[in-house]
UniProtKB/TrEMBL annotation:
<dbReference type="Pfam" id="PF01323">
    <property type="entry name" value="DSBA"/>
</dbReference>
<protein>
    <submittedName>
        <fullName>DsbA family protein</fullName>
    </submittedName>
</protein>
<dbReference type="InterPro" id="IPR001853">
    <property type="entry name" value="DSBA-like_thioredoxin_dom"/>
</dbReference>
<dbReference type="InterPro" id="IPR036249">
    <property type="entry name" value="Thioredoxin-like_sf"/>
</dbReference>
<feature type="domain" description="DSBA-like thioredoxin">
    <location>
        <begin position="13"/>
        <end position="191"/>
    </location>
</feature>
Length: 237
């Protein structure tokens, strides 16, 4: 039987469907890295980032007013992730996240470690530094700064588009499966967590008009996620 394409290929891997321009995903990815480090599971568990491109689902750019309205609310849940209100003019705001999403997929040719570190560096560059991460030179500069990526190999992959189909394949898998949002985390046994630990709603209008209210936030769920993944990996060893 063909394995569900949304699930990790190996028990020691955690799949994270997300968009880079998603504050809730930035929070989740930060907490995943923190929990893995805290539990001493670095080198034992890996993150496989998959694309949940909001611009394709919504058929529009992820509007700056909506994104800006989330920063102080979601950022307050964990300031350590790195946040800043964007200072640049509107014309410097990324209109697409497809190039950096593609870069994260392309980096997998160098191993999941390179891919997950590039993903983390891109998120921090966007959310904490206000950089336009849709630009090729910015992606490559960020990759160089990560210290984990062969920048020349990444540049070649971006220029010939070899990872572009992976972005679209993952979009299709998310669109026609049980991936419901950014972020959505999946474990090898099929256990999944949509926007782990956080329950939010919008008041006085939808995204871009109103503002988010956090009704619940339980960061301890990341300990549970990592511990369960570690148990799955140990059972398979």
């Amino acid at each position: 039987m063909r394995r569900d394409p949304r699930l990790p290929a190996t028990p020691d891997t955690i799949v994270v469907f997300s968009d880079l321009n998603c504050s809730f995903a930035h929070l989740a990815v930060h907490r995943l890295h923190q929990a893995r480090r805290r539990l001493g599971l670095e080198g034992l568990l890996r993150f496989d980032h998959r694309c949940f491109p909001l611009e394709l689902f919504n058929r529009t750019v992820n509007e700056r007013p909506g994104v800006d309205s989330e920063v102080s609310v979601v950022g307050a849940l964990d300031p350590g992730a790195g946040w800043r209100l964007r200072q640049g003019p509107d014309w410097s705001y990324p209109v697409t996240m497809l190039p950096p999403l593609e870069a994260v997929q392309a980096a997998k040719a160098q191993g999941l470690g390179a891919s997950e570190q590039l993903d983390l560096a891109l998120r921090r560059a966007f959310w904490a530094e206000g950089r336009c991460i849709s630009l090729r030179h910015e992606i490559l500069d960020i990759a160089a700064g990560s210290g984990c990526v062969d920048v020349d190999a990444l540049a070649q992959a971006l220029d010939d588009g070899r990872a572009r189909s992976a972005v679209m394949d993952q979009f299709t898998a998310a669109r026609h499966g049980r991936v419901t949002c950014s972020p959505h985390v999946f474990l090898y046994d099929g256990t999944d967590f949509a926007n782990p630990g956080v329950r939010a709603r919008w008041v006085n209008g939808d995204f871009g008009v109103g503002f988010p209210v956090i009704d619940a936030d339980d960061p301890t769920i990341y300990t549970d996620i990592l511990a369960r993944a570690a148990d799955l990996a140990a059972m398979a060893a």
